[in-house]
Amino acid sequence: YQAKMDFALKLGYAGDQIQAVLNKLGADALINDVLAELVRLGNKSESEGQSTASSTTSTLVPRGPCPKEIASPELSLEDEVVDNSDNLRPIVIDGSNVAMSHGNKEGFSCRGIQLAVDWFLEKGHKDITVFVPAWRKEQSRPDAPITDQEILRKLEKEKILVFTPSRRVQGRRVVCYDDRFIVKLAFDSDGIIVSNDNYRDLQNEKPEWKKFIEERLLMYSFVNDKFMPPDDPLGRHGPSLENFLRKRPVIPEHKKQPCPYGKKCTYGHKCKYYHPERANQPQRSVADELRISAKL
């Protein structure tokens, strides 16, 4: 009797349950019969507990359309933070890059800038800045065609678009480097750069800018009039687009299959499995890897 009692206690069953089963089956019962009866009692008590819990909750739930509150705490928390613009990073858009991309490299399409701004506004972003050189306010010319130019004035009135300085000196146009404005503002505000430009020259200026551009550059594509950023901005092992745009991630990342070789894996960034030790490392190019190994 005592041996059966100790064995069942080690498995995590309650003492009163074990005593009830042994009194029912007798001290000479086989251990398998005792365990089967314990399992049956456990399943019965669980089903009773669930039925009582559902009956109590059904009496407490008020009438009215509030499915989000009843659903699950994770979903309600996610919806709450998505709508909260304080958790979204500032957006800095390279206006020239976006407009030329939408114009298929043949013209400066201001409508492309509007499409990108609208996409982020729909996501709940309020801190959006677009940089465009001031000379784009000039009249369209055959060598530099501009379409939908009134959009620039409209966005400027809404305090979304900022013109970078330019002037004429003895008939020659002197322009400031608008890429430096873009990277500097995004770095200072801890935001996101929206561009298909890699800013190689600015990466070489400051090491902190190089790391920032590698981790905060959001590339995109235009499918006709649809602005489409990638769902995995930093690669397959990086954060999702939603968490990339947030200051604090809300939706947990999907569990990825860890690499069976672990730290001994020799595939590097080409490995299709997840490496937790490489999660915080920026995606370096092959040339950068060779330079670092040469220094070591």
UniProtKB/TrEMBL annotation:
<dbReference type="InterPro" id="IPR021869">
    <property type="entry name" value="RNase_Zc3h12_NYN"/>
</dbReference>
<feature type="compositionally biased region" description="Polar residues">
    <location>
        <begin position="48"/>
        <end position="60"/>
    </location>
</feature>
<dbReference type="InterPro" id="IPR000571">
    <property type="entry name" value="Znf_CCCH"/>
</dbReference>
<dbReference type="GO" id="GO:0036464">
    <property type="term" value="C:cytoplasmic ribonucleoprotein granule"/>
</dbReference>
<dbReference type="GO" id="GO:0005634">
    <property type="term" value="C:nucleus"/>
</dbReference>
<feature type="domain" description="C3H1-type">
    <location>
        <begin position="253"/>
        <end position="278"/>
    </location>
</feature>
<keyword id="KW-0479">Metal-binding</keyword>
<keyword id="KW-0863">Zinc-finger</keyword>
<keyword id="KW-0460">Magnesium</keyword>
<keyword id="KW-0255">Endonuclease</keyword>
<dbReference type="GO" id="GO:0016787">
    <property type="term" value="F:hydrolase activity"/>
</dbReference>
<feature type="zinc finger region" description="C3H1-type">
    <location>
        <begin position="253"/>
        <end position="278"/>
    </location>
</feature>
<dbReference type="GO" id="GO:0008270">
    <property type="term" value="F:zinc ion binding"/>
</dbReference>
<feature type="region of interest" description="Disordered">
    <location>
        <begin position="45"/>
        <end position="73"/>
    </location>
</feature>
<keyword id="KW-0378">Hydrolase</keyword>
<keyword id="KW-0862">Zinc</keyword>
<protein>
    <submittedName>
        <fullName>Putative ribonuclease ZC3H12B</fullName>
    </submittedName>
</protein>
<keyword id="KW-0540">Nuclease</keyword>
<dbReference type="GO" id="GO:0003729">
    <property type="term" value="F:mRNA binding"/>
</dbReference>
<dbReference type="Pfam" id="PF18039">
    <property type="entry name" value="UBA_6"/>
</dbReference>
<dbReference type="GO" id="GO:0004521">
    <property type="term" value="F:RNA endonuclease activity"/>
</dbReference>
<dbReference type="Pfam" id="PF11977">
    <property type="entry name" value="RNase_Zc3h12a"/>
</dbReference>
<comment type="similarity">
    <text>Belongs to the ZC3H12 family.</text>
</comment>
<dbReference type="InterPro" id="IPR051101">
    <property type="entry name" value="ZC3H12/N4BP1_RNase_Reg"/>
</dbReference>
<dbReference type="InterPro" id="IPR040546">
    <property type="entry name" value="Rege-1_UBA-like"/>
</dbReference>
